[in-house]
Protein backbone atom coordinates (compact mmCIF):
# COMPACT_ATOMS: atom_id res chain seq x y z
CA UNK A 1 0.00 0.00 0.00
CA UNK A 2 1.33 3.44 -0.93
CA UNK A 3 0.29 6.19 1.50
CA UNK A 4 0.60 9.92 0.95
CA UNK A 5 0.86 11.78 4.27
CA UNK A 6 0.23 15.53 4.12
CA UNK A 7 1.85 17.68 6.80
CA UNK A 8 4.41 14.87 7.19
CA UNK A 9 7.08 17.17 8.63
CA UNK A 10 5.14 18.21 11.74
CA UNK A 11 4.94 16.60 15.18
CA UNK A 12 2.77 13.60 14.26
CA UNK A 13 4.15 12.99 10.74
CA UNK A 14 7.39 11.16 11.66
CA UNK A 15 5.56 8.95 14.20
CA UNK A 16 2.93 8.09 11.57
CA UNK A 17 5.58 7.36 8.94
CA UNK A 18 7.26 4.83 11.24
CA UNK A 19 3.94 3.17 12.17
CA UNK A 20 2.88 2.88 8.51
CA UNK A 21 6.25 1.50 7.49
CA UNK A 22 6.10 -1.03 10.32
CA UNK A 23 2.75 -2.14 8.86
CA UNK A 24 4.44 -2.66 5.47
CA UNK A 25 3.30 0.53 3.71
CA UNK A 26 5.34 2.72 1.41
CA UNK A 27 5.10 6.31 2.68
CA UNK A 28 5.47 9.59 0.81
CA UNK A 29 5.40 12.83 2.74
CA UNK A 30 3.92 16.06 1.43
CA UNK A 31 4.68 19.38 3.07
CA UNK A 32 5.63 23.01 2.76
CA UNK A 33 9.40 22.79 3.20
CA UNK A 34 12.03 20.13 2.51
CA UNK A 35 14.01 21.26 5.58
CA UNK A 36 11.22 20.03 7.89
CA UNK A 37 12.42 16.48 7.17
CA UNK A 38 10.27 13.60 5.95
CA UNK A 39 9.09 15.62 2.95
CA UNK A 40 9.24 13.93 -0.46
CA UNK A 41 6.93 16.37 -2.27
CA UNK A 42 6.79 20.09 -1.63
CA UNK A 43 3.24 21.38 -2.06
CA UNK A 44 0.95 23.79 -0.27
CA UNK A 45 -2.47 22.20 0.28
CA UNK A 46 -4.15 25.58 -0.16
CA UNK A 47 -2.89 25.43 -3.77
CA UNK A 48 -5.44 23.11 -5.41
CA UNK A 49 -3.42 22.73 -8.61
CA UNK A 50 -0.19 21.78 -6.82
CA UNK A 51 -2.08 19.35 -4.55
CA UNK A 52 -3.81 17.70 -7.54
CA UNK A 53 -0.45 17.38 -9.33
CA UNK A 54 1.12 15.76 -6.24
CA UNK A 55 -1.71 13.21 -5.86
CA UNK A 56 -1.69 12.45 -9.62
CA UNK A 57 2.08 11.86 -9.48
CA UNK A 58 2.10 9.65 -6.36
CA UNK A 59 -1.06 7.65 -7.21
CA UNK A 60 -1.56 6.72 -3.54
CA UNK A 61 -3.79 3.92 -2.26
CA UNK A 62 -4.49 6.12 0.77
CA UNK A 63 -4.01 9.73 1.86
CA UNK A 64 -3.72 10.71 5.51
CA UNK A 65 -4.39 14.43 5.65
CA UNK A 66 -2.48 15.72 8.67
CA UNK A 67 -1.50 19.11 7.23
CA UNK A 68 -3.09 21.94 9.11
CA UNK A 69 -2.73 24.95 11.34
CA UNK A 70 -2.75 22.94 14.55
CA UNK A 71 -2.44 25.64 17.20
CA UNK A 72 -5.67 26.99 18.69
CA UNK A 73 -3.93 30.31 19.46
CA UNK A 74 -2.49 30.70 15.93
CA UNK A 75 -5.91 30.03 14.40
CA UNK A 76 -7.53 32.70 16.58
CA UNK A 77 -4.83 35.21 15.61
CA UNK A 78 -5.50 34.77 11.88
CA UNK A 79 -8.91 33.15 11.28
CA UNK A 80 -8.81 33.66 7.51
CA UNK A 81 -5.48 31.88 7.16
CA UNK A 82 -6.72 29.13 9.49
CA UNK A 83 -9.78 28.64 7.31
CA UNK A 84 -7.67 28.55 4.15
CA UNK A 85 -5.32 25.91 5.53
CA UNK A 86 -7.73 23.74 7.54
CA UNK A 87 -10.89 23.95 5.42
CA UNK A 88 -9.79 24.92 1.88
CA UNK A 89 -6.78 22.61 2.32
CA UNK A 90 -9.15 19.70 3.03
CA UNK A 91 -11.14 20.66 -0.08
CA UNK A 92 -7.98 20.61 -2.25
CA UNK A 93 -7.03 17.18 -0.96
CA UNK A 94 -10.41 15.48 -1.48
CA UNK A 95 -10.84 17.08 -4.91
CA UNK A 96 -7.33 15.98 -5.90
CA UNK A 97 -8.13 12.39 -4.92
CA UNK A 98 -11.43 12.37 -6.84
CA UNK A 99 -9.72 13.91 -9.90
CA UNK A 100 -7.04 11.17 -9.86
CA UNK A 101 -9.84 8.65 -10.60
CA UNK A 102 -8.13 5.70 -8.96
CA UNK A 103 -9.18 3.86 -5.79
CA UNK A 104 -7.84 5.74 -2.77
CA UNK A 105 -8.98 6.01 0.86
CA UNK A 106 -8.80 9.43 2.48
CA UNK A 107 -8.34 9.76 6.23
CA UNK A 108 -9.02 13.35 7.20
CA UNK A 109 -7.51 14.27 10.55
CA UNK A 110 -9.88 16.62 12.35
CA UNK A 111 -9.89 17.19 16.12
CA UNK A 112 -11.89 16.57 19.29
CA UNK A 113 -11.96 20.38 19.57
CA UNK A 114 -14.93 20.34 17.14
CA UNK A 115 -17.21 19.33 20.06
CA UNK A 116 -16.59 22.67 21.81
CA UNK A 117 -19.59 23.82 23.82
CA UNK A 118 -21.30 20.45 23.28
CA UNK A 119 -18.72 18.87 25.59
CA UNK A 120 -20.28 17.95 28.93
CA UNK A 121 -18.38 16.61 31.89
CA UNK A 122 -17.96 13.03 30.64
CA UNK A 123 -16.74 11.25 27.49
CA UNK A 124 -18.61 12.20 24.29
CA UNK A 125 -19.32 9.80 21.48
CA UNK A 126 -19.50 10.64 17.77
CA UNK A 127 -23.31 11.14 17.94
CA UNK A 128 -22.84 14.39 19.87
CA UNK A 129 -23.45 17.36 17.58
CA UNK A 130 -20.29 19.50 17.37
CA UNK A 131 -20.51 23.09 18.54
CA UNK A 132 -17.00 24.56 18.06
CA UNK A 133 -16.00 27.30 20.50
CA UNK A 134 -12.87 28.55 18.75
CA UNK A 135 -11.64 29.26 15.22
CA UNK A 136 -9.53 26.09 15.18
CA UNK A 137 -12.56 23.89 16.01
CA UNK A 138 -14.72 25.69 13.44
CA UNK A 139 -12.17 25.27 10.65
CA UNK A 140 -11.70 21.60 11.51
CA UNK A 141 -15.49 21.07 11.48
CA UNK A 142 -15.68 22.83 8.10
CA UNK A 143 -12.97 20.48 6.77
CA UNK A 144 -14.99 17.47 8.00
CA UNK A 145 -18.19 18.67 6.30
CA UNK A 146 -16.34 19.34 3.04
CA UNK A 147 -14.69 15.91 3.10
CA UNK A 148 -17.88 14.01 4.01
CA UNK A 149 -19.84 15.80 1.31
CA UNK A 150 -17.50 14.20 -1.24
CA UNK A 151 -18.57 10.69 -0.21
CA UNK A 152 -21.74 11.44 -2.18
CA UNK A 153 -19.47 11.81 -5.22
CA UNK A 154 -18.00 8.36 -4.52
CA UNK A 155 -15.02 9.29 -2.31
CA UNK A 156 -13.90 6.68 0.24
CA UNK A 157 -13.38 9.08 3.13
CA UNK A 158 -13.21 8.74 6.92
CA UNK A 159 -12.82 11.35 9.65
CA UNK A 160 -10.56 10.98 12.68
CA UNK A 161 -11.28 13.18 15.69
CA UNK A 162 -8.16 12.82 17.83
CA UNK A 163 -8.04 14.32 21.30
CA UNK A 164 -4.74 15.68 22.71
CA UNK A 165 -1.71 13.57 21.93
CA UNK A 166 1.77 14.05 23.27
CA UNK A 167 5.28 12.72 22.79
CA UNK A 168 8.69 13.68 21.47
CA UNK A 169 8.80 16.13 18.58
CA UNK A 170 6.00 18.47 19.68
CA UNK A 171 7.00 22.14 19.80
CA UNK A 172 7.05 24.07 23.11
CA UNK A 173 4.17 26.24 21.86
CA UNK A 174 2.07 23.37 23.28
CA UNK A 175 1.49 23.12 27.01
CA UNK A 176 3.40 19.99 28.10
CA UNK A 177 6.52 20.51 25.96
CA UNK A 178 6.51 24.09 27.29
CA UNK A 179 6.51 22.83 30.90
CA UNK A 180 9.19 20.26 30.05
CA UNK A 181 11.35 22.91 28.38
CA UNK A 182 11.12 25.16 31.43
CA UNK A 183 12.03 22.24 33.73
CA UNK A 184 14.93 21.16 31.51
CA UNK A 185 16.45 24.66 31.63
CA UNK A 186 17.42 23.96 35.27
CA UNK A 187 19.66 21.08 36.41
CA UNK A 188 18.11 18.09 38.23
CA UNK A 189 17.68 18.89 41.90
CA UNK A 190 17.39 22.61 41.11
CA UNK A 191 14.51 25.05 41.72
CA UNK A 192 12.21 26.23 38.88
CA UNK A 193 9.47 28.85 38.70
CA UNK A 194 7.10 27.48 36.06
CA UNK A 195 4.94 29.88 34.06
CA UNK A 196 1.56 28.27 33.44
CA UNK A 197 -1.87 29.04 31.96
CA UNK A 198 -5.17 27.47 33.06
CA UNK A 199 -4.34 24.28 34.94
CA UNK A 200 -7.94 23.27 35.68
CA UNK A 201 -8.96 22.42 32.09
CA UNK A 202 -9.65 18.67 31.70
CA UNK A 203 -8.34 16.99 28.55
CA UNK A 204 -8.07 13.49 27.11
CA UNK A 205 -4.33 12.82 26.67
CA UNK A 206 -2.76 9.94 24.75
CA UNK A 207 0.73 8.93 23.76
CA UNK A 208 1.21 9.95 20.11
CA UNK A 209 2.08 6.33 19.29
CA UNK A 210 -1.43 5.21 20.27
CA UNK A 211 -2.93 7.84 17.97
CA UNK A 212 -0.82 6.95 14.93
CA UNK A 213 -1.59 3.26 15.56
CA UNK A 214 -5.28 4.24 15.40
CA UNK A 215 -4.72 5.91 12.00
CA UNK A 216 -3.06 2.76 10.67
CA UNK A 217 -5.97 0.65 11.99
CA UNK A 218 -8.55 3.01 10.50
CA UNK A 219 -6.92 2.72 7.07
CA UNK A 220 -7.38 -1.05 7.07
CA UNK A 221 -10.55 -1.52 9.16
CA UNK A 222 -12.38 1.83 9.27
CA UNK A 223 -15.74 2.17 7.52
CA UNK A 224 -16.08 4.69 4.69
CA UNK A 225 -18.12 7.77 5.59
CA UNK A 226 -17.66 7.25 9.34
CA UNK A 227 -16.27 9.50 12.07
CA UNK A 228 -14.06 8.01 14.81
CA UNK A 229 -12.99 9.60 18.10
CA UNK A 230 -9.35 8.78 18.94
CA UNK A 231 -8.10 9.13 22.47
CA UNK A 232 -7.86 7.46 25.85
CA UNK A 233 -11.41 8.03 27.11
CA UNK A 234 -9.87 9.35 30.35
CA UNK A 235 -10.06 12.97 31.53
CA UNK A 236 -7.05 14.52 33.28
CA UNK A 237 -6.53 18.07 34.44
CA UNK A 238 -3.52 19.93 33.04
CA UNK A 239 -2.48 20.27 36.71
CA UNK A 240 -2.35 16.48 37.17
CA UNK A 241 -0.24 16.16 34.00
CA UNK A 242 2.08 18.85 35.34
CA UNK A 243 2.40 16.95 38.64
CA UNK A 244 3.34 13.74 36.77
CA UNK A 245 5.95 15.65 34.78
CA UNK A 246 7.39 17.40 37.85
CA UNK A 247 7.59 14.07 39.73
CA UNK A 248 9.64 12.57 36.87
CA UNK A 249 11.84 15.66 36.56
CA UNK A 250 13.40 15.68 40.03
CA UNK A 251 13.18 19.51 40.23
CA UNK A 252 11.58 21.65 42.92
CA UNK A 253 8.81 23.71 41.34
CA UNK A 254 6.91 26.91 42.13
CA UNK A 255 3.99 27.68 39.81
CA UNK A 256 3.25 31.19 38.54
CA UNK A 257 0.19 31.99 36.40
CA UNK A 258 1.13 33.96 33.28
CA UNK A 259 -1.99 35.81 32.01
CA UNK A 260 -0.56 35.64 28.46
CA UNK A 261 -0.94 31.86 28.62
CA UNK A 262 -4.67 31.98 29.47
CA UNK A 263 -7.01 31.34 26.54
CA UNK A 264 -9.89 33.82 26.13
CA UNK A 265 -12.38 30.98 25.55
CA UNK A 266 -11.50 27.70 27.20
CA UNK A 267 -13.54 24.51 26.87
CA UNK A 268 -13.58 23.29 30.51
CA UNK A 269 -13.70 19.53 29.78
CA UNK A 270 -12.99 17.60 26.58
CA UNK A 271 -13.00 13.79 26.74
CA UNK A 272 -13.65 11.33 23.92
CA UNK A 273 -15.71 8.16 24.12
CA UNK A 274 -13.57 5.76 22.05
CA UNK A 275 -15.82 2.66 22.03
CA UNK A 276 -16.28 2.90 18.25
CA UNK A 277 -12.52 2.77 17.70
CA UNK A 278 -12.18 -0.09 20.21
CA UNK A 279 -14.80 -2.02 18.21
CA UNK A 280 -12.29 -2.00 15.30
CA UNK A 281 -9.85 -3.85 17.56
CA UNK A 282 -7.90 -0.92 18.97
CA UNK A 283 -6.37 -0.90 22.44
CA UNK A 284 -3.83 1.56 23.83
CA UNK A 285 -0.28 0.25 24.17
CA UNK A 286 1.46 3.25 25.80
CA UNK A 287 0.95 5.41 28.86
CA UNK A 288 0.91 9.20 29.21
CA UNK A 289 3.63 8.77 31.85
CA UNK A 290 5.96 7.26 29.23
CA UNK A 291 5.11 10.10 26.80
CA UNK A 292 5.95 12.68 29.50
CA UNK A 293 9.25 10.91 30.21
CA UNK A 294 10.15 11.00 26.50
CA UNK A 295 9.27 14.71 26.22
CA UNK A 296 11.39 15.52 29.27
CA UNK A 297 14.31 13.49 27.93
CA UNK A 298 14.09 15.33 24.59
CA UNK A 299 14.06 18.75 26.27
CA UNK A 300 16.93 17.80 28.60
CA UNK A 301 19.08 16.61 25.71
CA UNK A 302 18.38 19.90 23.88
CA UNK A 303 19.29 21.92 27.00
CA UNK A 304 22.66 20.12 27.42
N1 LIG B 1 -1.19 17.16 18.28
C1 LIG B 1 -2.42 17.06 18.79
O1 LIG B 1 -2.60 16.88 19.98
C2 LIG B 1 -3.61 17.12 17.84
C3 LIG B 1 -4.88 16.93 18.39
C4 LIG B 1 -5.97 16.92 17.53
C5 LIG B 1 -5.79 17.10 16.18
N2 LIG B 1 -4.54 17.29 15.67
C6 LIG B 1 -4.40 17.48 14.23
O2 LIG B 1 -3.48 16.51 13.74
C7 LIG B 1 -2.76 17.04 12.63
C8 LIG B 1 -1.28 16.86 12.86
O3 LIG B 1 -0.95 17.51 14.07
P1 LIG B 1 0.55 17.95 14.43
O4 LIG B 1 0.57 18.07 15.90
O5 LIG B 1 1.52 17.08 13.74
O6 LIG B 1 0.61 19.42 13.81
P2 LIG B 1 1.92 20.24 13.36
O7 LIG B 1 1.53 21.67 13.40
O8 LIG B 1 3.11 19.79 14.12
O9 LIG B 1 2.12 19.77 11.85
C9 LIG B 1 1.28 20.23 10.81
C10 LIG B 1 2.08 20.16 9.53
O10 LIG B 1 1.26 20.69 8.47
C11 LIG B 1 2.10 21.49 7.65
N3 LIG B 1 1.31 22.48 6.93
C12 LIG B 1 0.72 23.61 7.44
N4 LIG B 1 0.11 24.28 6.46
C13 LIG B 1 0.31 23.58 5.32
C14 LIG B 1 -0.06 23.79 3.98
N5 LIG B 1 -0.78 24.85 3.61
N6 LIG B 1 0.31 22.87 3.05
C15 LIG B 1 1.05 21.78 3.40
N7 LIG B 1 1.44 21.53 4.67
C16 LIG B 1 1.08 22.43 5.62
C17 LIG B 1 3.08 22.17 8.62
O11 LIG B 1 4.22 22.64 7.93
C18 LIG B 1 3.37 21.02 9.58
O12 LIG B 1 4.44 20.24 9.11
C19 LIG B 1 -3.18 18.49 12.49
O13 LIG B 1 -4.16 18.59 11.47
C20 LIG B 1 -3.79 18.83 13.84
O14 LIG B 1 -4.75 19.84 13.75
C21 LIG B 1 -3.43 17.30 16.48
Explain what this protein looks like in three dimensions.
This protein is an alpha/beta fold and 304 residues long. It has two domains: 190 residues, Rossmann fold (3-Layer(aba) Sandwich), CATH 3.40.50.720; 85 residues, UDP-galactose 4-epimerase, domain 1, CATH 3.90.25. Helix content is 40%, strand content 18%. The strands form four sheets. A seven-stranded parallel sheet has the order 3-2-1-4-5-6-11, sandwiched between helices. A three-stranded mixed sheet has the order 12-9-14. Strands 7-10 form a two-stranded parallel ribbon. Strand 1, helix 1 and strand 2 form a beta-alpha-beta unit. The termini are far apart. Bound molecules: nicotinamide-adenine-dinucleotide. The site of nicotinamide-adenine-dinucleotide (NAD) has 24 residues, from helix 1 and helix 4.
The largest sheet has its strands arranged as 3-2-1-4-5-6-11
Count, helices: 10
Largest sheet: 7 strands, parallel
Overall structural domain count = 2
Architecture of the largest domain, according to CATH? 3-Layer(aba) Sandwich
Distance between the termini: 41 Å
Estimated share of beta-strand residues: 15-25%
- Estimate the mean pLDDT confidence: 95
CATH H-level superfamily title of the largest domain: NAD(P)-binding Rossmann-like Domain
Question: What is the helix fraction of residues, given as a range?
Answer: 25-40%
Order of helices and strands: EHEEHEHHEHEEHEEEHEEHEEHH
- Taken from the alpha-carbon principal axes, the silhouette is globular
Cofactors and ligands present? nicotinamide-adenine-dinucleotide
Do you know the CATH topology of the largest domain? Rossmann fold
Poorly predicted regions are none
How many strands?
Answer: 14
